[in-house]
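Appendix B, Record 12. Input sequence as logged:
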Amino acid sequence: METSITHSKKIEKCLCEGVPEPFRFQLSVVPTLLHLLRFSTPAIVGSSGVLHCEQLLCEASTVLKYVQEDSCQRGIYGKLVCTDFKIAFLGDDESALDNDETQFKNKVIGENDITLHCVDQIYGVFDEKKKTLFGQLKKYPEKLIIHCKDLRVFHFCLRYTKEEEVKRIVSGIIHHTQAPKLLKRLFLFSYAAAARNSTATHPKNHTVMFETLQDWCWELERTKGNMKYKAVRVNEGYQVSERLPEYFVVPTPLPEEDVPRFQGHGIPMWCWSCHNGCALLKMSALPKEQDDAVLQVQKSFLDGVYKTIHRPPYEIVKTEDLSSSFLSLQDIQTAHSKFKQLFLIDNSTEFWDTDIKWFSLLESSSWLDIIRRCLKKAIEITECLEAQNMNVLLLEENASDLCCLISSLVQVMMDPHCRTRVGFQSLVQKEWIMGGHCFLDRCNHLRQSDKEEVPVFLLFLDCVWQLVHQHPPAFEFTETYLTVLSDSLYIPIFSTFFFNSPHQKDTNMGRESQDIQGKPLNLLTVWDWSVQFEPKAQTLLKNPLYVEKPKLDKGQRKGMRFKHQRQLSLPLTQSKSSPKRGFFREETDHLIKNLLGKRISKLINSSDELQDNFREFYDSWHSKPTDYHGLLLPHIEGPEIKVWAQRYLRWIPEAQILGGGRVATMSKLLEMMEEVQSLQEKIDERHHGQVALQAEASSLLRASARLSSLFPFALLQRHSSKPVLPTSGWKALGDEEDLAKREDESVDLGDL
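Logged structural output:
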């Protein structure tokens, strides 16, 4: 106990140091926070605790946190706290906020915690009118509403809070969540510096990070691509380009001295090799030039590069320009902005008011259509690699957005290794982290430009979820894994998603950023799942229905399918016609014009042959039994593309199905599997380890008193048993009594 109190005093001193003068006040909340630490480890604390380097900035007492399910004035009183890491609500009755029934707890972020990076919009209520809050306020609201990027909605009543505390907490939250930041001022750096001397250990992570030349050589060997491609170190120390990784793979015939010519632009870079020897490549376009002499030099350079990858009849290349013949980043941004509004629900009344317009609102957002187009494009490229035996070259301005998305989807569909957890994490490292996807800008972590904020990585996870949903036995990980991975984008203790390039990371936190002690900052990766979850909770990240590589004949296995929840998809109607697209002609001049950034619309011809090949390839695959360790294609027609319910609906009580949904199916299947494996164990003791693992997963499901369709996130959410019918939009359907009478009649007819 004496040691714990000493540690608490040290943290109290840490909290007081460095607090900005405008937010310095009597830290009455510190004892409330510190008593949680006295019986905890100093590294990471639970829901209402603080991290070991977290600094308190401002707080307000007597704050009422409303219950989201209805518009009445019910809630919990407590303190609203803002630190340099998160916004936290500390309830006066801690037992009401901490229920042991919740077995899927995040050790870093609690139920009532919001990291500063996770805040999307802040609203204030003035005389029952809701207004967006930003900048300096002349008048302060009586209610505070916070919309989060993980789609949580928090309502805080400030009516009973002291005026000075209201000003302090509202101003502090607005400033620390909306004001532009410098990279070095992110909490990530404070946490990494404080953790440098930590003695905490984490299980060995088997994810391939692709930070060494050997990692790339291993991947080449795994995919049998080392016969035609080579790993190079020409950018070691980032001498050629700061946007490229230090090590990458290029075609073997390509002279290494060509790479620095245009700082890596115009160089075909290897992504993955197919079993038939064909490869998926990507290339960033050369900068636009007006000078004829420079254009001639670029033309000559690209002509030489093209000959190294296009050598008919042995090597044929098809080119896909994702910058001009596919989605734009603006399309993705606009669609997601509309789509997320469907799930940022303030109360039950608003939920039922918008329910009657659900399908029209969902369709008008175009988010599901964008997912369909991404999956279709990946299938088209898969068909070229698999059926036509052609190399495919993806082209984009910087090859760091749509190239990452499409190349990753193709590999998930074609490579069963990428459908394991370690393989998927290695894929994200290779294509997104080392591929130079600008997470810092695309997630707007610095709050410097809303125009740059585009959820490309979330779109990728949504596309992968479609595959996981349609082919569960093919994936070692679950949809819960994908959900918590999407949440981890906004937790600034992991370095994985907080930089624009490997160079930026190394410069600010790695080898080139060392303190006076000569030690680099201690970085955590998001793949260390033990930081966020206890071992028992981590079992929910692993799919117990995953089909191991079969030892029996493939023909003996049949595909497993789950019944779709059609209300989460659009009705089967004729989809909007997409712009006619085709592959580029193979002549060198066309590729050169493309790479030089010229207008290429005249070069993209409608190809009936391409559509015929695609349809034949698609229909042929779906007509055969599914090989879960082979090629895997999604269904992309009509209602087959669905809303990722667990991620988008998990915080809406009205959207739950208590005791139903896929979790109920999963629970029953696990019970059956346990029974079968228990019998098998009596025959063969070698299956003991597998039985124990699946038994643990099943026991975790059964231990919960109230399972819902949105398990494990919505386990304790309150449920409205009766909808609050709106007065507008439903008049044509009759009043509430008529609706109840019709419902009774339909039940009677169903019994006949």
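The chain has a mean pLDDT of 81.
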